[in-house]
Amino acid sequence: MCGHRVACLDAANETDVKLLVGEDRAALAIQDPPYNVAVGNVNSDNLGRFPVEDYIQWSRRWISNTSSILNADASLYVWLGADQNAGFQPLADFILMMRAFTEFKTRSLITMRNQRGYGTQNNWMALRQELLYYTRGQPKFNVEAEYTDIPKILRGYYKNVNGRMTENLERSKSENIRAGNVWVDIQQVFYRMEENVPGCYAQKPLKAIERIIRASSVAGDLVVDFFAHSGTTLLACERLKRRCFICDVDPIFAEITIRRLERYRKIGKTGWQSDSPFPEVAAAREQDEADGPCTPGEKMKSSTTSTIQKGNTGEISARVNCI
User: Fold this and answer.
1) Domain range for residue 58?
2) What total of structural domains would you count in the chain?
3) What global pTM score does this model have?
C-alpha cells in the first residue's frame, strides 16, 4: 500500500496538521496521546506529569485539529489513562472536555486488559487501558471485526422464536464471542514479541489497532494518527490496505515509524523484538569505546544518521511514498 505520509509535526499546531493532511479528509482517527502519568526514572524525565488544566488545554487544540480533517461521517478513537493516584486524571477531565465538541457523539468506553500490571498488596492491581470511541455523522461499523478467537461455551438466554424456545448458541451468528467493550483476548506487547519496539513505552498491540481499523474503515480509506510513537497505526494500515497520515512531535518516534514500515516491507517483520531500531547507535558506542574517551574540545558525532526534523515534511512524505 502506497500513499502514506509520515512527518515530525505538532498535533496541537493547526498549521502543522494542515501541512500533513492538506485537502484530504479522514474516515478514521486513532489518537494515543501521552497519558500525563509520571513513569520511568531519572533517564525518562520527558514522561513527567503536567498540571491537568494545562493538559486539557493542550488536548482541546489537538482534538479541534482532528475534527477539522475528518469526513462528515467519521470515527474517532482515543487511548487514554486514568491515574489512580491523582484523582483518575486525565481520563475524567478529558471526557468532560469532549462534551464541548458537540460534533462528536459518545459511542463506547472500551477497556483493554493487560496481562501484567502494577500495584501493591494494599490495592487492586492496575491492569487496564482505556479507549474512548466517538463518531461524527453516521459512519459504518463493521461488526464482523469485533469477533474474537474465543469460542462460546456458556449456554442460556432462552427466547421464544416462532413458537419454539431457543437458546443463545442456536441464535448466534458466530461460534466465537464478540470482544464487546472489554478486550481480554489481546496480548500486551513485551520484549519477547516480534512486534516489540524497544524504547516505546506502553506500545499498543498491532491486533488492537487492526481491530479498530477493520471495524471503522474500509480498504482505501484515510486513517490519521497524530501521536505515531511506535508506528503501529501506519503498519496496521499498510497491512489492511488503508492510507495513513501520521506524525509525532518527537523526531525519534517519527524515524522509528518510518524504519518500522521499511523493515516490514523488506523482511516481513512487524518489529525488532529485543533488538534496537537504531543499530548504528550501538555501533557508534562500540567505536567510541574502542577509540577511548574524547579529548577536550572534541565534538561528539551524531549516532543517528537519519533522524527527521520538523520542516522536512515533503522529504519525509516522499521517502515513505517511494518505498
Assistant:
1) 5-290+301-321
2) 1
3) 0.86
